[in-house]
Design goal:
The protein is α+β, with helices and mostly antiparallel strands. The longest helix has 14 residues.
């Protein structure tokens, strides 16, 4: 083996570097992270965000999915939510946060359910936007 061979990646390593990552769901909140959560876990997290302590935060992401919105997150307090939709890195909208304030529980749950089942968030483009 030559000196420069030491620095070369083997064929298997080069293939691993080019294989796209698998799509998966991630639920994150005050209780930690759950990879591949089921719907009852997501539903409970949304409920806990508004019923729990002030400023409880949850985030549901469908990662490596090439969706228009990759993450939906909510911050709850006193029964109301601030819901945010985040586009994936690499998209034209990356760096924007679509914000919907003052959302009641039923509507917040509907946003999360639609994202969970349909992998989309209807109407997010009409929400206020912020830059990261």
């Amino acid at each position: 083996m030559g000196f420069f061979d030491f620095f070369r990646k083997d064929k298997n390593q080069r293939q691993e570097d080019t294989v796209p990552a698998e799509k998966y769901w991630l639920l994150a909140g005050g209780d930690g992270e759950i990879v591949e959560p089921d719907w009852p876990q997501v539903e409970q997290a949304v409920k806990t965000a508004a019923d729990g302590s002030a400023g409880e935060f949850i985030c549901l992401s469908c990662l490596n999915s090439d969706l228009e919105i990759e993450s939906l997150q909510a911050l709850g307090e006193d029964g109301l939510y601030r819901v945010e939709a985040l586009p994936p890195e690499g998209s034209d909208d990356y760096g924007k946060i679509y914000v919907n304030d003052g959302v009641v529980y039923a509507d917040a749950l509907a946003f999360f359910k639609e994202f969970w089942e349909e992998k989309r968030v209807v109407g997010f483009r009409s929400w206020h936007t912020r830059k990261l």
